[in-house]
Amino acid sequence: MVESEIPGGKLRGVHAQTPEALSGALKVERNRGLSGAEVRRRLAIYGPNLLKQAKPQSIWLIFADQFRSLVVWLLLAAGALAFWFSEWTEGVAILVVIAINTAIGFTAEIKAIRSMEALRRMARVSTRVLRNGRIREVPAQELVPGDIVLLEAGDVVTADLRIVASSGLCADESTLTGESLPVDKSADLLPDETPLIERHNMLFKGTATTRGTATGVVVATGMATELGRISALVEAAESTASPLEKRLDSLSTRLVGVTLVLAVLIAVTGVSVGQDLFLMLETAIALAVAAVPEGLPIVATLALARGMWRMLRRNVLIERLSAVETLGATTVIFTDKTGTLTENRMTVQKVALYDGTVTLGEGDQAFAKDGQSVEVADDPQLAAALEIAALCNTASLPPLAEDGINGGRQKSGVTGDPMEVALLNAARKGGIEASELKESLPEVRREAFDPDLKLMATYHHLGLMATFHRVPGQQASEQAQEVSGCRVAVKGAPEKVLAAALWVKTATGKKALEETGRQAWSERNEALASEGLRMLAVAEKTVEDVSADPYSDLVFVGLIGLLDPPRMDVASSIAACRAAGVRVVMVTGDQAVTAKNIATTVGLAEANARVMLGAELSAEGEAEAAEPEKVLATDIFARVNPKQKLDLIDFYQDAGDVVAMTGDGVNDAPALKKADIGVAMGQRGVQVAREAADMVLRDDAFSSIVVAVEQGRIIFGNIRKFVIYLLSCNLSEVLIVCLATLGGLPLPLLPLQILYLNLVTDVFPAFALGAGEGEKGIMERPPRDPREKILMRRNWVAILGYGAVITVATLAAFTASLFWLEHSTEEAVTVSFLTLASAQVLHVFNMRDTGSAMLRNEITRNPYIWGAVVVCFVLMFVAVYAPGLSDVLRLVPPDGQGWGLVAAMSLMPLIVVQVLLRVVARARGT
């Protein structure tokens, strides 16, 4: 049984309680909800409406994770080996290296983890509740038992609710019961013994409404909900590793095997040519440490986190790490029209009636027909259209200020779909206050908007009043009379409403709607839609029985045209997509002429572009078998239903495209999941759509999608850069020791020097590369192949080339110091150490794009790069001149000739690579 702690004791079997009894037990008025003070009191008793969440990873656990690294174990082995051979200084130094390595890894990882946790906290769910007689949106975690919750299709249920009123309600309970099909819901009373899966008058936390509307009272929150009880039994943390991070881990793992084999060969070769056993064993371990790029996953996570924060500042919230990688490979964006390409700031512009079209303006010309001012009270057709718009509506406006409609300011508290809000504002402008109208014509039944029928209806009891009107600035006037039956208010797609209408409202009553009249209305609809207006039709009828069919024998009242102007930045964003090789396709449920008008205005399509209707797609969602190329060539799809959206994604994906899809409704959720990148609207999108998506646009703007694609490309490019940088630097260290050992030369690098270099020249420049702002022309290139690996063949060639050039320069400096300048072995080792360190630090400037300028590019513009370079050179000088540290590393200050050799040889790799980059750029014509 469902039990809920409530004021006054435990309530058992809430599904078996009447709404009245339940409201009394919970001490709440269904028409007012709880007061603010009562909410605070109950919140203190029951706590926040949250499930027991996985605790943030503790600092100590993150610290302990650093010792699970292969590098740390290799270092520990080297330290143990040093102590075994009584090399106390070496052993202590290695322990210091372990401490530094651990500190760097710990600092980087905790920053990345905390960043990701902060990003997840951004995606909070809100819920519409009735409190103090006002509808408001509150964070779901603030719900308490007794709260009155209002739900619409697409809302996520955020607490266990007993339904007290509903209309056409269905819910997806697959997360709780495993049942894949939506379940019909109602407020009907059920027997006490009804099993959980059959409690159709209950809505449970974690499920979602898929159709209809409902009012429910909260009976359980947090861990007291059914979902909370299940989650208490299963507590498992979900892995957040993206495919990119997994591939980096795999790359590191493969390199470990190769490195260990090389280390063994070096040790055996060195001993065989007479080198000291301990020295060669320590060198082999140090090389293994240097060659394994164990920092890759951490740096990658930091790069991802930083990129996600950048996107968040541009109103893009990334829900899944894997989306960042896919964004850079996007080839097609399926975008909705309303709110994405347009401002989602709707206003009613025109109302087409039987005997003319009324234009809405301001002041004395608030309503005008044929240039003449019209009073709503004097025009029964206009009054009826505005009343239907206010009645058949789920949005709400705040109460009017006392100084009237036109002069007063509205208070905050607007809720609902922007289109329905616009209808309420138009009605208010005409003196029709929706809240007062609904009090006089109480709603007794609602048929929620059906996306397949494209219709919505509400039934209103006529018992007290036949007409109602409010004159701006005056008291409401009423003409009350006893009338039986219900007034049915209908709104929806013009073609659907026209098809269901048998009559048309005129100034003197109603007349039969003939086929010629129906065609005339269709033509008026097309004409208004071609102006870029979003068109709705309104109709009504009176019925004796509330159970009567809502969509038959309707009286057609008129057309309402709403303007939603295109966003100012959309045209430039679409142009940027074209330059980036990303195609933009409009997929909308709106009319063809409206869609085409907006598409041509924002530059998405040419004036002669063909619009393909959803009806032109087969039942399977594919194009006509003989003309599949027409689908791929179409820029505008209109009157498309959710199933056809899903099929279009399949069609384009089969053609090899990587598809991003925008969506905002509950029926868009399957398409958002199916798309390679699901993009949900943060402002007008329902919660189900947001949860199904990979990213959420907090401002609903198309330009934010373009920003996300650009950042996806930048992040992938940055990761590739620092992987190439790290591997080429590590390769040079291995090659230097290998070639010197095979050539019978003294070791040009000692084990602790290698470890010091690994800490100095690897970490800081790699972090700086990962934080780069990206190349300026990155959006002027075609999308990356989604199957493209992090390192392609050309990248491996570059790594080998870079490593070889640095190796040659370092060995040249070492041999010149040893044999030409006749330095001691200790001095020659210092020269090779400084040459390698300087060459690796300067090598970061070789990571620029091939076609970029030598002096002004994405690397030189990155302030983190310059900071890393300064830090690295300071640490190199400290290693040579700091007493104690120089003794441990066995370094001595070079003379003037030594420094000259270091400068010349460390610059050689930079100069050689820059020249090669220039040659390659010319060969490519860039």
Task: Report what the structure shows.
By secondary structure, the protein is α+β, with helices and mostly antiparallel strands. It has four domains: 138 residues, Calcium-transporting ATPase, cytoplasmic transduction domain A; 283 residues, Calcium-transporting ATPase, transmembrane domain (Up-down Bundle), CATH 1.20.1110; 161 residues, HAD superfamily/HAD-like (Rossmann fold, 3-Layer(aba) Sandwich); 200 residues, Calcium-transporting ATPase, cytoplasmic domain N. Strands 12, 13, 14, 15, 16, 17, 20, 21, 22, 23 and 24 form an eleven-stranded mixed β-sheet that branches. Strands 10-30-29-28-11-25-27-26 form an eight-stranded mixed β-sheet, sandwiched between helices. The longest helix has 41 residues. The chain is elongated. The N and C termini lie far apart (72 Å).
Question: What descriptors fit this protein?
Answer:
eight-stranded mixed sheet; eleven-stranded mixed sheet; Calcium-transporting ATPase, cytoplasmic transduction domain A; Calcium-transporting ATPase, transmembrane domain; 4 domains; disordered N terminus; Rossmann fold; alpha+beta; 29 helices; 926 residues; single chain; 45% helix
- Helicity, as a percent range: 40-55%
Q: Which of globular, elongated, flat, extended, rod-shaped describes the shape?
A: elongated
What would the CATH topology of the largest domain be? Calcium-transporting ATPase, transmembrane domain
CATH architecture of the largest domain: Up-down Bundle
What Rg, in angstroms, do the CA atoms define? 35 Å
- What's the number of structural domains? 4
CATH class of the largest domain: Mainly Alpha
Give the count of helical stretches. 29
| Strand percentage | 15-25%
N-to-C span: 72 Å
The CATH H-level homologous superfamily of the largest domain: Calcium-transporting ATPase, transmembrane domain
Class based on secondary structure composition and strand pairing = alpha+beta
The largest sheet, given as strand count, sense and whether it forms a barrel, is: 11 strands, mixed
Average pLDDT level: 80
Overall strand count: 30
